[in-house]
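Page 37, continued from 36.
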């Protein structure tokens, strides 16, 4: 799924209006009914609803949703903020349509003397605010619908609107934002004012997720978010280019290569994992298991001698190549060719290991996977990154990324830096986090949609490395190997959490669900 920038919204809208064709007000009606449907399916009709509508089309949506909810039997207190006495055309039309509703009480700005503005009262109320605003009481049971601003936000909220947002945020009410939490920019919020951004419990967003939703620091604003399809014309979605994508299960499923019936373990790849050291042999074990369960035909682990028994006992399917040293890897000799190589899980940073790793990088001609300590050993050695084979996959979490490429204050900044680095060094960066981003050497960014917070657990990254390398070994091109590996890993984690809860799961539980994850993806293909 493509992620567009919010400044493209008008273009997508206009094309749909001209080519479907559909009237602009009817497109708004379609968007509003999707929002209404979502609200009706979650909140009972006796829930008191307070609506905050802004002067633009986001406010228009909110007014249309208000009409629909009243028709469905909800009682609403609606506030339309119109300080400049200027509403967008469709907002105006929806204000007029609201007036047709029987029994809805209309008033202009609430007078300052009217200081006891409590709700719920008898029947639904509509108030247009042009100057003074006495906010209604928002209690724990109140549902707030936030339709102040959406994709048309032009600067951070301040003044009166800032105060309204702060008032909403300080209440115990449940908040649903339409399209975007008001005050949040769709992309870059580096210069924004956090206290003037609505903190929603649920954001119902139109057609595609916004880039800002992918960043951890914005979760406090978006809460849970859900995409609703409002029928933007497929041709304009196709024609409009973007660098950002959100990977959905059907897309991941299409990447799975079909296995020939005549396959042998030798042509589904021999994986080499250079991993483990004394005290961290579990990382090698997990990566080896994950590679095997992802479909690698053969897996060898090159590691410190102390790992031999551990590995051969816990992963009898894997071969073991013991280093001369007992506690760490001191030399890496490739005496045969491998279909895919990964370096890093539990590697440690012994100076002999570092030397062996740097020597290996000088010999490698094909893309490899670098994770964990391999990344830490690369930090400060840009000359080594420069000489990595094209399409080499680096899998840093944000701390490892910053260690490698310098500190970043926000996820937005980090993502831009990652794009710059992926392009500069012709590498694939898998930036791990809640919405892991796979960044290609062309600078395309693919956000993962599977996975859950339970996967923030020891060994989860080693598992991912094993999976991506296992796919590479089977002949997947590095980009689909990274995308599919990340997606499968997340889906296996989701299945594990479904079975045993997020708190319970460990890396082993993720591995144990790889099979079910494959099965689930296979089902998307039929
Ligand atoms: N294709 C789509 O995505 C559709 C979008 N629709 C809605 O339309 C919204 C976009 O509507 P608009 O472009 O009218 O934009 P908004 O409604 O988000 O806001 C525009 C208004 O806010 C004012 N404004 C902007 N920043 C401000 C600030 N910091 N302080 C005070 N005022 C400020 C502008 O002057 C303008 O009056 C979407 O978010 C969505 O809710 C839907 O109606 C249907 C179709
Ligand atoms: K909003």
């Amino acid at each position: 799924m493509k992620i567009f920038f919010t400044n493209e919204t008008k273009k997508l809208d206009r094309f749909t209006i001209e080519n479907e064709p559909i009237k602009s007000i009817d497109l708004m009606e379609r968007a509003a009914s999707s929002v209404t449907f979502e609200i009706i399916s979650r909140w009972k009709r006796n829930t008191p609803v307070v609506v905050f509508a802004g002067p633009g089309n986001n406010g228009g949506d909110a007014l249309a949703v208000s009409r629909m909810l009243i028709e469905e039997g909800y009682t609403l207190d609606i506030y339309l903020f119109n300080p400049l006495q200027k509403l967008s055309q469709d907002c105006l039309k929806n204000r007029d349509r609201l007036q047709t509703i029987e029994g809805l009480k209309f008033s202009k700005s609430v007078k300052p003397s009217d200081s006891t503005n409590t709700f719920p009262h008898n029947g639904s109320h509509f108030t247009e605010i042009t100057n003074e605003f006495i906010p209604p009481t928002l209690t724990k049971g109140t549902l707030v619908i936030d339709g102040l601003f959406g994709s048309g936000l032009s600067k951070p909220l301040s003044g009166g609107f800032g105060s309204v947002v702060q008032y909403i945020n300080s209440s115990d009410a449940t908040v649903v934002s339409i399209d975007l939490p008001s005050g949040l920019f769709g992309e870059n919020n580096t210069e924004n004012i956090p206290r003037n951004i609505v903190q929603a419990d649920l954001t119902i967003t139109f057609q595609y997720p916004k880039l800002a939703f992918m960043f951890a620091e914005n979760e406090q604003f978006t809460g849970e978010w859900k995409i609703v399809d409002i029928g933007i014309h497929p041709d304009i979605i196709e024609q409009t280019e973007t660098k950002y994508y959100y990977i959905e299960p059907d897309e991941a499923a299409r990447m799975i290569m079909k296995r020939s019936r005549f396959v042998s373990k030798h042509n589904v790849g021999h994986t080499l994992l250079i991993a483990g050291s004394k005290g961290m042999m579990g990382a090698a074990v997990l990566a080896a298991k994950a590679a095997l369960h992802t479909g690698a035909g053969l897996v060898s682990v090159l590691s410190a001698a102390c790992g031999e028994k551990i590995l051969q006992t816990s992963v009898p399917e894997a071969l073991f190549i013991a280093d001369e040293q007992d506690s760490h890897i001191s030399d890496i000799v490739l005496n045969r060719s491998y279909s895919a190589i990964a370096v890093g899980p539990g590697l440690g940073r012994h100076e002999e290991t570092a030397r062996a790793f740097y020597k290996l990088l000088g010999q490698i001609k094909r893309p490899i996977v670098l994770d964990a300590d391999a990344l830490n050993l690369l930090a400060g050695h840009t000359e080594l990154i420069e000489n990595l084979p094209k399409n080499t996959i680096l899998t840093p979490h944000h701390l490892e990324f910053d260690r490698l490429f310098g500190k970043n204050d926000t996820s937005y900044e980090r993502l831009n830096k990652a794009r710059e680095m992926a392009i500069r060094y012709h590498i694939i960066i898998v930036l791990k986090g809640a919405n892991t981003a796979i960044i290609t050497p062309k600078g395309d960014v693919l956000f993962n949609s599977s996975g859950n917070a339970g996967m923030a657990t020891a060994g989860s990254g080693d598992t991912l490395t094993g999976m991506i390398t296992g796919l590479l070994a089977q002949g997947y091109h590095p980009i689909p190997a990274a995308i599919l590996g990340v997606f499968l890993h997340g889906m296996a984690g989701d299945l594990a959490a479904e079975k045993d809860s997020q708190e319970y799961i460990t890396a082993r539980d993720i591995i144990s669900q790889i099979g079910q994850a494959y099965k689930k993806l296979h089902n998307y293909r039929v």
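Residues 142 and 173 are 5 Å apart (CA to CA). Flag for discussion at group meeting. The radius of gyration is 27 Å.
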